[in-house]
Design a protein that fits this description.
Largest sheet: 8 strands, antiparallel
Number of strands: 53
CATH topology of the largest domain: Jelly Rolls
């Protein structure tokens, strides 16, 4: 068997394929390396443009700069060990020179062994050091898009290796084979490798290799390679006993405005060792499965009994008889190849007990059936549903614990358990029978009559009356439905209960719910509720007030008598214009909420003619009228307005539409 030592690392196997440049990631990625802001120590200098996830779709992407003289250093909180091999993958965006001319200054990958709190290089008004300049001891790989005179290799975009924050390069190469600038509004794939060398020809040590995608062919090309015989040649404080370093990204903009971004794709190391786990008798019939997993990682074990009758899981043991787990499903950690055996015990008899819930609903329970042989079939039928229920209780259903695939519950016929292989607890559930109260009373509900009514009346009252032949107190009406022609009367509110309106052709169906019945003496008539609304000059001159349906909260000994009313107008309306429309409800709508452009865009829906006004009210109650208009019977009903609001400060406001009969308001925000 193969055993992992305590110094080895554990990994999560992951395969990632990037189709943009035809790069395939290796098969093993460090599970602990993540790239959210909490994984970095981020240091900013004069940088208000730094932004995590600028597109809102990629949590591994960061905008580093977007204006002049901005600096950023991002130090990852997970160090790497220089004694191991590592490969870093990035995508970098260097800007768009077609928009801003020359672009500056670039992005750097930096390494050091210093405290990261507040660590950032360079100076405020210089971008050429990319925020790593002066950090010592350190090593940096810069991707430079600006010519900085004699300290750089030439007037072309390049990769350079630099040590201890000194701008004098150790080695350099063009970023791409083509001579075009990389600030061409394109993303570039970057790979940085730290690899051990085998020591042939005296070349022991490490190689640092930086590669980018060739701009024309799309092929990943090695750009710059440098050999380091010992770790201190990279970072002067590093050694075989002090080999862990901090790594990160730095970037800066000098005098040239530029957007620079980076996307972290991953950190890759060599694959871990693989262990084998063999599970024996997972189904109770000798089934064996074999699992491969990464040594030292957690692995799931579980049984899958195909025949659970007369078998009960006890524990898992290894091939030496040691108990590993007493759970049929568990997660364990093993560092070597292992064999686990599922152990069961034989069951000869089972017990099941029947309870009533609540207990007082059935005096026959609890009842226990003991020493029932395994594999026996049980069918209760409906013997307990009605025969043994106590008076005043109603059966509502069964429940079984444990409820598994062997249990079939039918609330009409009872419970089938087939086969019966374990102990069960069965419960019959009951509820108290609820008998609604019965009112031995006769109600009369009457709609009022309104002859010769003025067709221009507003907030007109239409009372509905109620009477009973016996004394009544504390009664409620669940629902009351009244119908009226909407060309004659349009309801607006009611003083008792809740009102909702439903339209069908020219009829309004008013539904009133939760209506309180007033205290009534025998044969005393009182107002049940009053409907307020507008009398209209429509296409007809009369309408019935029809009481369609009434439902009381209590059961009644007799059906109520429903007496209809009516409304008639005192003028002829043939050929007249309508005063109110019914296709919609009146409202004022803010079309551009929140308001950002200095103009408030409104839509006002009206249903009656007359004078209207619009006013803006702030949170302190201060109001200002901003528009007045008139609605005629033959004119338009919906109005669109653009209201200048540049004289209003930012904050929350209400826009109020004052109509001839009511006010309608909507809240909006000025940014």
């Amino acid at each position: 068997m193969k055993t992992k030592t305590s110094t080895q690392k554990f990994y999560l196997k992951t395969v990632i394929i990037f189709t943009l440049f035809s790069i395939v990631f290796p098969s093993y990625m460090e599970a602990q390396i993540e790239f959210t802001p909490s994984n970095f120590t981020i240091v900013l200098r004069s940088n208000t443009g730094f932004l995590h996830n600028p597109t809102g779709t990629n949590p591994n992407r960061y905008r580093l700069t977007n204006y002049t003289y901005q600096h950023v250093a991002m130090w990852h909180n997970t160090q790497i060990d220089l004694l191991d091999e590592h490969t870093f993958y990035f995508k970098m965006y260097f800007g768009d020179s077609t928009k801003s001319g020359r672009i500056s200054d670039g992005i750097a990958f930096a390494m050091h062994q210093l405290p990261t709190a507040g660590l950032i290089g360079g100076s405020d008004m210089v971008g050429q050091d990319m925020a790593y300049g002066g950090i010592k001891p350190s090593f940096a790989i810069e991707f430079d898009t600006w010519n900085n005179g004699n300290i750089e290799p030439g007037n072309f975009d390049h990769i350079a290796y630099l040590k201890d924050g000194d701008m004098k390069y150790l080695a350099y190469s063009r970023i791409q084979d083509a001579y075009a600038k990389v600030g061409n509004n394109q993303w570039y794939e970057i790979k940085i490798e730290w690899k051990r060398t085998n020591g042939q020809n005296g070349n022991a040590g490490y190689d640092l290799i930086t590669s980018t995608v060739e701009n024309v062919t799309g092929v990943l090309v090695e750009r710059l390679k440098m050999h380091f015989p010992k770790l201190s040649d990279l970072v002067s404080t590093a050694s075989p006993t002090n080999s862990r370093i901090t790594w990160g990204i730095t970037s800066a903009c000098g005098a040239s405005t530029n957007v620079q971004e980076i996307e972290f794709l991953g950190v890759v190391e060599p694959p871990p060792d693989t262990c084998t786990l063999i599970l024996i008798d997972i189904d109770g019939n000798g089934k064996i499965i074999e699992t491969k997993y990464e040594c030292g990682n957690k692995v799931e074990i579980n049984i899958s009994l195909t025949d659970t009758c007369c078998k009960k899981f006890i524990h898992w043991i290894d091939n030496f008889g040691k108990i590993i787990s007493t759970k049929p499903q568990d997660t364990i950690t093993l560092n070597s190849d292992s064999v686990l055996i599922a152990i069961y015990e034989k069951i000869d008899f089972v017990t099941y007990t029947v309870f009533a819930n609540p207990p007082e609903a059935n005096d026959a329970f609890p009842y226990t059936y003991a020493n029932v042989s395994c594999r026996a079939n049980v069918n209760y039928g409906n013997m307990m549903e009605t025969t043994f229920a106590n008076d005043g209780w109603e059966f509502i259903g069964w429940s079984v614990e444990p409820n598994d695939e062997n249990v079939f519950i039918n609330d009409t016929t009872g419970i089938d358990i087939n086969p019966l292989c374990k102990d069960y607890t069965i419960t019959a559930h009951y509820k108290k029978k609820e008998l609604p109260p019965v009112l031995d009373v006769k109600f009369y509900i009457r709609a009022s009559k309104h002859p010769l009514t003025d067709p221009t009346r507003r907030n007109y009252r239409v009372p509905i009356f109620i009477k009973a032949d016996e004394y009544v107190s504390g009664s409620m009406i669940d629902s009351l439905i009244i119908e009226i022609d909407r060309r004659i009367f349009y309801p607006k509110r009611v003083d008792n209960g809740d009102m909702s309106l439903h339209f069908k052709d020219t009829v309004i169906k008013m539904t009133f719910e939760n209506v309180t019945v007033p205290e009534l003496k025998a044969n005393e008539e009182k107002v049940l509720l009053t409907i307020r609304g507008d009398v209209l000059l429509g296409e007809i001159d009369s309408s019935e007030i029809k009481i369609d349906t009434v439902v009381f909260a209590e059961d009644l000994s007799e059906k109520p008598d429903l007496i209809h009313g009516f409304i008639t107008l005192d003028i002829c309306v043939e050929g007249a214009n309508r005063l109110v429309w019914f296709d919609y409800s009146p409202e004022v709508i803010v079309k551009n909420n929140p308001v950002t452009g200095g103009v408030l865009e409104l839509q006002c829906k009206t249903i009656e003619r007359g004078s209207y006004s619009l006013e803006i009210v702030d949170m302190l109650g201060k109001s200002e009228t901003v528009r007045e208009f008139t609605v005629s019977a033959s004119g338009k009903r919906i109005f669109d307005f653009e209201i200048p609001i540049s004289n209003f400060s930012s904050g929350a406001y209400f826009i109020i539409m004052n109509t001839p009969s009511a006010k309608y308001s909507t809240k909006f925000v000025i940014q």
